[in-house]
Amino acid sequence: MILKRISILILMMFLMHIQSFSGVMTDSISKYELSVRANGMGNTFTGISDDLSSLIYNPAGLSLIEHRAANFYHSDKFGTGINEDYLSFATPFGRKMFGISYVREAIDDIPIIDASQQISGFLTTKKSMFTGTLSWLQGNMRTGMTFKMLSTNLGQGFNGDGYAFDIGFLKPLNRKYSLGLLLQDVISDFSWDSGRNDDISMTTRLGVGYKSRLEDFKAGFDYIMEQNADSYFSFGAEYYVSSIFCVRAGFNDGDISYGFGIKYDEWVFDYASQQGEFEDTVTISATMNLKKVKTSIDREMRRYRDGKVIRKAEIAPQDRSSSNSNTIPGSDAIKAVLDRYSAKNEEIKVADKKLEFHRKELEIPEEAKMHYKLGNTFLLEEVFTKAIEEYKIAIEIYPSYGQAHYNLAALYEKMEFTEKAIYEYQMVTQIDPYNVNAYIALGNLYLSMNNVNDAIKFFNKVIIIAPGSKSAELAEQKIRKLNEK
Question: Which residues of 79-108 are buried (b: 16+ CB within 10 A; e: fewer)?
Fold first, then answer.
């Protein structure tokens, strides 16, 4: 009798999880909140959406990812044996990002009790969802679309299949704030074996995201409007205590949540605890950055492909030294030397740097050069995510590859990843302290952030190291305009 009561209780709790005011519903099949990072922040993620969790919370944010990534998530809902498992994967797709995911929520091995109070078998009830997402950047607006295939098998005639469609938008308001909008299940249909058809109720999520200048602190506020249900709000925050450890907390419709994350090599491990009606729900996940996961077959394919396409673009076009340009990227290392030091009083330094660059060129491994040139090819074809990937591989092989750092920085600047662009330009100045192009670019970036003091500092650096050059004239003009304001 006790066994029977337990099995009935578990089944009733599961059915409660999929019930609405009008009877059995399909909403819970498509409205999963399957990010441990977001769980710890009160599921506040619509305006933040900057990782693989975007597949669920706002597909527009998926285009912020620069490389392949995979995620696994597990949860025991309410501690009742309702197991929730989730797999997701994303990869660059031309100039867009493509992602897929699969979720299964089930109670396995529920005992079936016959009239003689004996176990006559076991029942598994489950719901599942498979999604495909495409996300892209147009201007400064990010857009994402998700198609969802849904299935439920609850036994006792509660079986059905259907589909739903989401669309999301993410727009930066300035360098700190962003606005997100998700229209969830805007188009949907679900058919039961009984012949009944249901539309899944639409949910609208409007969110505002905030990030600090160094991106070590992020916070958000979401307002959720559900059709046939009350609206509510959530807010949450995340703070990186160190480069590898962060803490999170949030508030969602009256419930408190908290969690933490740990970075290790190419892995991110997340933990979250959320208040629930029955008891707290604990979730864990592991996310892997796949940019370093390359098989020997991949490498052979790259080498073969390089032989086909390197001739198409030996060097990325970077000459922006005309008076109409705001930044002046360098060309290849030797040409950059000849262009950089034209003033007569710098002739000795020019000769020294020329020899130094010759030496460094000889030290760069051929494999690093191969990936650098392939990155240039992707850059010319405007396949930016692939170009970034190739430049990063070249830098991984040879960390002091200044030109790869420079091209990566210029690409980040073009894609408006300001903080990342600043970091890479600073790496260039460490490798090559006389790279006036990097200093000009840093000055312009800090100027775009309204940091006038740092902008002037970098412009002055150009005047000091390359007096009389076109770059110095440009820097002087910029300082003069700033002083006139």
Answer: ebbbebebebbbebeeebbbbebebebbbe
Residue-range domains of the chain with CATH: 2-292 (2.40.160.60), 296-484 (1.25.40.10)
The 10 Å CB-count burial string (b at 16+, else e) for 459-477 is bbbbbebbeebebbebbee
Please tell me the distance from the alpha carbon of residue 115 to that of residue 44, in angstroms, as a whole number.
48
Residues 202-228 have pLDDT tens digits of 999 999 999 987 778 999 999 999 887
**Secondary-structure percent of the chain, ordered helix, strand, coil, rounded to 5:** 35, 35, 30
Query: Cα-Cα-Cα-Cα dihedral of 188, 191, 197, 202, to 10°?
Result: -20
Torsion 168-171-175-178 (CA) sign: negative
Q: Using CA atoms, how far apart are residues 291 and 304, in angstroms rounded to an integer?
A: 20
DSSP string, 68-130: -EEEEEEEEETTTTEEEEEEEEEEEETTEEEEEEEEEEEEEEEEEE-TTS-EEEEEEEEEEEE
Residue type, 124: T
pTM to 2 decimal places: 0.56
Mean pLDDT, residues 161-186: 92
Residue 247 CB burial class (10 angstroms; 0-12, 13-18, ≥19):
middle
Question: Mean pLDDT lowest for which of 322-336, 383-397, 459-473?
Answer: 322-336
DSSP 8-state code for residue 213: T
Average pLDDT of span 446-464: 87
Residue 355's CB is within 10 A of a number of other CB atoms, namely: 11
| β 69-77/281-289 pair status | antiparallel
Residue type for position 222: D
CA-to-CA distance for 379 and 356, rounded, in angstroms? 27
Give CA–CA dist 54/180, Å, rounded. 11
